[in-house]
Amino acid sequence: MGVDRFLENPLLTPRDVSPHRRDFEVLGVFNAGVALYQGETLLLLRVAERPAQQDQRLIRVPIWDVAHEALRVETLHNEYGEYDVSDPRSVVTKATGRFAYLSSLSYLRIARSHDGVHFTVDSEPFMFPATAYETFGIEDPRIAEMEDAYYITYTSVSPFGVCASLATTRDFQSVQRLGVIFPPENKDVVLFPEKIDGRYFALHRPVPGDIGGPEIWIADSPDLIHWGNHTHLLGVRPERWDSRRMGAGAVPLRTEAGWLEVYHAADEQGRYALGAVLMDLTDPRRVLARSSNPLLAPELPYEVEGFYGNVVFTCGTVLVGDTLRIYYGVADSAMAGAELSLSEVLSSLGTVQVR
């Protein structure tokens, strides 16, 4: 199956986005939700920023201060190596081995394009942390167009944990938060773009503790707020490309063969790739087929090297005729794009063993 990466890749990098504060620096521009709006392709970018680090003995971390409705910078003294920063995404207290802070704060900013390839980035954030459940940032949005509105699911991170929240917009100027819809620990929530038998459906990814693992579940709702009938949908496969963890990626696409979901998964080496799963149109809890091999895997330098390397991760696709255009984050650093033939993707699933 042919994969045509855009010659312009990476489409957006931290150099293309100015920090929202002069004393901050942009670490990553990635994992964007995608929408078509008034003739433009919109990328709802996850922008990760941190305070400029000027002294190695000090660690400056950003936190949204709910009480004062302002962004606060916490300074941690690390003269004697009290904190472990070997994972660039987080700060861990060595004495306890427990997570202390995220090293950066993520928020959402819009990039716009008339051709789906060349983007300009808005100067101001579209969504910035605002609630007690967002004090460490908001991440990885997905956008489902339904009933004359755009519904945005996103990850909220705070000392309470990692949860999934919902917001809605009609014009990509104003936005209304609808609150937390899946409590910790849960993320990778994507909505189906239409009701099925009078119900809304969503894919989500809880992370069990002692038993179980990070795998894809499905739930339904009468109103997008209250969710139930939770059912395990898709699990990891030992010694395969999706052997360690997985989650939903883009909003499912309706095709004649079924609902097509492009999902992400990691293997035992932590390499993130993209695959596909096909679900029944009238009963999406019924899996019809699943990728035996990845649709897209990290191979090129901009996918292998970066803030967190060996990662391709999508939050949105666009279908133009038979062309499936995938927008994907690379190495937790930048945005890229690729095109595949939808018919080839579906054909590759035709004889696949589901489990």
Could you list some keywords that capture this structure?
3% helix, Tachylectin-2, Chain A, globular, disordered C terminus, five-stranded antiparallel beta sheet, four-stranded antiparallel beta sheet
Structural description of this entry:
The protein is mostly beta strands and 355 residues long. The chain has a single domain, classed as Tachylectin-2, Chain A, CATH 2.115.10.20. The chain has two helices and 26 strands. The strands form seven sheets. Strands 19, 20, 21, 22 and 23 form a five-stranded antiparallel β-sheet that branches. A four-stranded antiparallel β-sheet has the order 1-26-25-24. A four-stranded antiparallel β-sheet has the order 2-3-9-10, with no helix packed on it. A hairpin with a 2-residue loop joins strand 12 and strand 13. The longest helix is centred in the C-terminal third of the chain and has 7 residues. It is globular. The C terminus is likely disordered.
